[in-house]
Amino acid sequence: MIAAVQACGIEHPWAHQALAAEHALEGDSVVVATGTASGKSLAYLVPVLSTLLDGAEAPNGRGATALYLSPTKALAADQCRSVKELSQPLGNSVRPAVYDGDTPFEEREWIRQYANYVLTNPDMLHRGILPSHPRWSSFLKSLRYVVIDECHTYRGVFGSHVAQVLRRLRRLCARYGSFPVFLLASATAAEPAVAARRLTGLPVVEVADDASPRGELVFALWEPPLTELQGERGAPVRRTATAETADLLTDLTVQGVRSVAFVRSRRGAELISVIAQERLAEVDRSLVGRVAAYRGGYPPEERRALERALHSGELLGLAATTALELGVDVSGLDAVVIAGYPGTRASLWQQAGRAGRSGQGALAVLVARDDPLDTFLVHHPEALFDRPVESTVLDPDNPYVLAPHLCAAAAELPLTEEDLDLFGPACADVLPQLEAAKLLRRRTKAWHWTRRERAADLTDIRGAGGRPVQVVESGTGRLLGTVDAGAAHSAVHEGAVHLHQGRTYLVRSLDLEDSVALVEQADPPYSTVARDTTSISILETDTEIPWGAGRLCYGSVEVTNQVVSYLRRRLITGEVLGETKLDLPPRTLRTRAVWWTVTEDQLDEARITPEILGGSLHAAEHASIGMLPLFATCDRWDIGGVSVPLHPDTLLPTVFVYDGHPGGAGFAERAFHTARSWLMATREAIASCECEAGCPSCIQSPKCGNGNDPLHKRGAVRLLTVLLREAPEEKPEKPEESEKPEKSEGPEESEGPEESEGPEGDGKAG
């Protein structure tokens, strides 16, 4: 094994690699939390491959096996290539294979019988491997190591699901007589051992001192200039982050600089590649084919071809979603352009770290979008550079998460009393509910799954909520890709513009029953943005504290959301060309929210008259949603909000901010605990903005269901000033973090979530 590592040109490991390998070989679960390009892969590959090599001497040639879990298919394919390169001198002793939804059926049986290093993702483990564990018995019996790469991505609801999938894996392994060691790799994160323990349910040793050398990284904060145009309500309009990023990618490509532009949405990635290709055609036609888009939802052969082209240097520029952010070894990159703050400092450094991976200097540019948070960050760089990265928060005891996994576990093997410790203390409350719903039945000492359908299909661990909608070209019947069910209403409604690999399509029809969107190629001079309405009702108040005469509350709510229309916006400038009504069914979401109320006296003190009350609440709501990612480690698109001058449940003017995931994802709770700091930053962001009556940099929202009307900037500042004057001091407590949900937005006044990228680079938001 040492000879194989030296054959790759590595004479000695870094100190952190050696330490992690030592722990692994001694049987300790370990998390390596060091920077990008610090050789985390080698830290776990050396002990794993060494153990597989020893196991190859067993009579069946498979005395030891290892399972590698990655949040994305791209990363698993990339790691498989690395393992094959590293293990080449070892002959056939190490047999790596990728087992995911793209694996041909004829290969699957060979992998189950002979592969000893299986690379897969949590989705496949949940739906494919664990439910059919008898067919995997020889693999599970010999399982020595489970590698969990990029484990910081398992946060919020998605992370909570993965934590329960890992508990199901540990339970089945124990039944087959194996107790694998868990090896986790994470980007630099706060308290990685705590997060790793919560994820695996096991004690984990932390290795966090990065001993690898680094090249210089020049980091630029870039604010697009104001244009001559006027936006909604006559507000000044900046050039879009999309247009600026496309220009930067074009300039870098012309200079032969290998670059990736990270974009938050699939549509944004496609748009940037289209604009860059058009600009390059004007300069040098030979460069047009050297820029492309990369996102989730592509057919597997298209994804693999793009990854190969990037590795070979055939592609100079790539506009990518977070599907490419994680670990894919895009070595040799000179520059990274980040279109809009990605939502967490951890993600920002992860993306920036893709540049300069061979030790040379590199450039990272954060291009600010026209919204309160991005504007705040480019004017307050200390909020990015002087603060630690966030800790990863997940809650395996969330009953919305736990219930389907208890059913899945019972379907794999009947659940016994002894198993309940493994799944956590919340089992005692959830099991009787599952019995009452006739999903589980207790016979003697165990609970059994009672239904004919597969228990693993009860939940989609990425929270997509239903089967993906297939995007089909109407003339040819060709499948272009898929869109998550949660994003379909807003992304592929009738009349929507759909981009795919530089080509533009118009959606002719959306069939929700058959989950098919029919599209045809077109060339409209505009993009489309969905608009929706939201109403909210309080189910239960868990906690409330007085804020002067008003109250700050946290609890359970039900949100009803409906996509009602879409705007057509001119490409590049973003100018609104018109609005078209839609007839789509409403959707409901039971989740967690934070809300605050104000009284007549407080309104009088803030000089808020009935005429400006709605606009003041609405403006404060928009800005607070824009600023929450600094405190709750979510993303603007993960959270929704509603503001009502007289809410029927509180009988007072009320502002709600809610999690966009069933059962909640932890960010509304975080907002409740940091409410004073959060709303002070919100007030500061509105008050310090130079605009006259409100703009996208302070109180206008890109996803408002009411067309950003009414809004009252000065009223919001006065209202927050009065509210904060009587705010109680916060107790110091640990930071938290969360994950990506599913779309929603405005009633009386409101805003909610839109398309964004989940860990597989698949769109969803809350």
From TrEMBL:
Residues 747-760 have a biased composition (Acidic residues). Residues 726-746 have a biased composition (Basic and acidic residues). InterPro entries: DEAD/DEAH_box_helicase_dom, Helicase_ATP-bd, Helicase_C-like, Helicase_put_actinobac, HRQ1_WHD, MZB, P-loop_NTPase. Keywords: ATP-binding, Helicase, Hydrolase, Nucleotide-binding. Coiled coil: none annotated. GO terms for molecular function: 3'-5' DNA helicase activity; ATP binding; nucleic acid binding. Residues 723-766 are annotated as: Disordered. GO terms for biological process: interstrand cross-link repair; nucleotide-excision repair. PANTHER family: ATP-DEPENDENT HELICASE HRQ1 (PTHR47957:SF3). This is Helicase.
